[in-house]
Structures are given as C-alpha cells and as structure tokens.
Amino acid sequence: MTIPNISLEKHPEVTAFFDDQSNTISYVVKDPDSASCAILDAVMQFDYAAGRLSYESADKIIAFIKAGELSLEWIIETHVHADHLSGAPYIQRELGGKIGIGEHIQEVQDTFGKVFNEGTEFQRDGSQFDKLFVDGDTYLVGQLDCVAIHTPGHTPACMVHVMGDAAFAGDTLFMPDGGSARADFPGGDAGQLYDSITRVLSLPNELRLFVCHDYGPNGRSIAWETTVGEQKTANIHVGGNATRTEFVKMREKRDAQLAMPKLIIPSLQVNIRAGEVPTDAAGNMTLKIPVNKL
Predict the structure, then answer these.
(1) Considering the entire predicted model, what is its pTM?
(2) What is the extent of the structural domain holding 27?
(3) Across-strand partners of 15?
(4) Which of 52, 262, 271, 282 lies 20 to 30 angstroms, CA to CA, from 142?
(5) How many independent structural domains does the chain possess?
(6) Residue 73: inside a domain
(7) In sequence order, what are the beta bridge partners of 168?
C-alpha cells in the first residue's frame, strides 16, 4: 500500500469532546477557509443496567456546531467501536451530513452478523452508511483536502483520516505513553496492526495526530493530541524501532490479559448498523446477548 501525498499547508480547527463513560474523544474539524466541518467518532450514551439511551455527548457537539453557525458535511467513524455506541444518526437527523466508514465494514458486519445471529434482513454490504471509504480515497470538507488511509489490525475496517495537517488515528495508536490498541477482537491481527502503525509513522513528522481514546496512564491528565514525530520516538509499543516480531509478541501477551469492554455487546450491534439500534418485529428497540460467542 502506497502512502498518499499529504499537504500540511492547511491548519484545520480541531475541537475535542471527551466522553468519560468510554474514555472516547470525539472531534469537530472545521475547514479554516469556510464554515464547513466534519465530526469524527461521535458518542451516544447507554446505561446498561437500565437499558436506556441518552445523548449528552452528541447534544454538546450539536450545540457547538449551531453556536458557531457551522455546516456539517461529514460524520465519520474511524472504525466499528466496541466500547461505545455511535451518535452518528442522532446528529445526522439534527444537522445533516453524510455518515462514512471504511469499506471493510462489510467484513465486520459478516463476522458479527453471525455472532449475533442476525437474519437475512440484516444487510452485510455496508449500505447502512452513506459512504464507504476505500484506501487512498480523497474528499473535501469545504475547501479542506482530506484522505482516508486503511489501517487494519485493531479491526478490519479501521482507517486514519488526514485532514490538512491533522490526522485522526482512531484506535490504531494511543498517546505515546498509552501505546496501541488491542488486536484480539474477531478480525483483529497484531501483525497487521504493526504494519498499519508503520504506515502511519511514515507520514510527515510534524503532522498533528489525534487519538480516539485516552485513559490517563500513571494518573496523568487526559490528553489527545500528539505528532507523528513524537510517536516515532516515544510510543511505548512501537517507538525506538521496535520490530514486528517484538510487537506481535507484546501485543498478543497483553491482549490475553485484557477484559472485554463493558459495552461491547450493545456497541457492536448498534455500530454495525451505522449507529441505529436494532428493532424487533413490533418495532421496539431490542438488543441481543449472545452467550459464549465473544
């Protein structure tokens, strides 16, 4: 896979929104030359015990966009999240915009369609989304040039989106002292993750890099912005020329000790549907709990 040409001439305005239920950071990215913007990785809250949805995080983003009189063009998912439910369709109903994800969502839908015993009425072709990004796809947010880069490993559908001098890493990389995301979910692969990280680290050193999750290692404050150059030298999993073999050994050992995310069961059912909650024959929102499947 070749590395697309990246221009750092434009400096988009990036505003972060932190969700403390899932330690997710969502972003509003504004074109510096217009009122156009994009959202990445919007969150919908879910009270598991009560089975109740709420929209605090999405409402904050909506209020921000309305207050700034911005025009929403894209609502982008960097991948199918396993730790939070997407707020994309809720925001789309309020503000418009197109919901996009990587084309390999079809693999994820096929895998988890089987896990959740979805019927033939569940389409596994990505048609729930408005746009399926292919590796190297270019698109615009207003006048801001953007490119989507396929970065599998955490999931098959992971993509890093570069917008001007800002890149949004999803779960491919965490902050340097957080390392990298797990690769043990169905469809994940530690070797692929290393290859994807290597590809990201071949981008310009000065490229700003924004992560999707942060857990404040060693008690530090939550953070979300770093650079490609900083990741190369300081990332605890891949910095300092760690080899592929070393990374895979570390990642597989570490992943074997990790518990499943608390919201993985509702998150996957919702997120493979572009954020829509599945319904039963009567039209009631209903989630399944597969036993001994994950």
Answers:
(1) 0.95
(2) 13-271
(3) 28
(4) 271
(5) 1
(6) yes
(7) 161, 210
| CATH assignment of the domain containing 239 | 3.60.15.10
Residue 216 reports pLDDT greater than 90: yes
253: tokens are 């050992």
Q: Quick check: is 289 in a domain?
A: no
- In three-state secondary structure terms, 61 is helix
Nearest to 266 by CA among 133, 90, 80: 80
How many Å separate Cα 132 from the centre of its chain? 14
Tokens 């988890």 found at? 112
293 assigned to some structural domain: no
Residue type, 71: S
Token look-up 């917008």 returns 163
Q: Contacts from 92-98 at CB under 8 Å and sequence distance 24+?
A: 94/62, 95/62, 95/65, 95/66, 96/72, 97/38, 97/39, 97/72, 97/73, 98/73, 98/74, 98/130, 98/131
Total residue length of the chain? 294
Residue 129, domain member (yes or no): yes
Per-residue pLDDT tens over the stretch 251-283: 999 999 999 999 999 999 999 999 999 999 899
b/e code 170-207 from CB counts within 10 Å (16+ = b): bbbbbbbebbbbbbebebbbbebbbbbbebbbebeeeb
Q: Encoding tokens for residue 194?
A: 């290393």
Q: Tokens in use for 193?
A: 């993750």
- What gap in Å lies between CA 45 and CA 26, rounded to an integer? 13
Residue 236 vs residues 79, 185, 233, 249: alpha-carbon distances, Å: 23, 22, 9, 14
What is the percent of the chain where pLDDT is above 90? 91
Give Cα 174 to chain centroid, integer Å: 12
CB 28 within 8 A of CB 64: yes
User: What would the pLDDT profile of 160-209 be if each residue is shown by its tens digit?
Assistant: 999 999 999 999 999 999 999 999 999 999 999 999 999 999 999 999 99
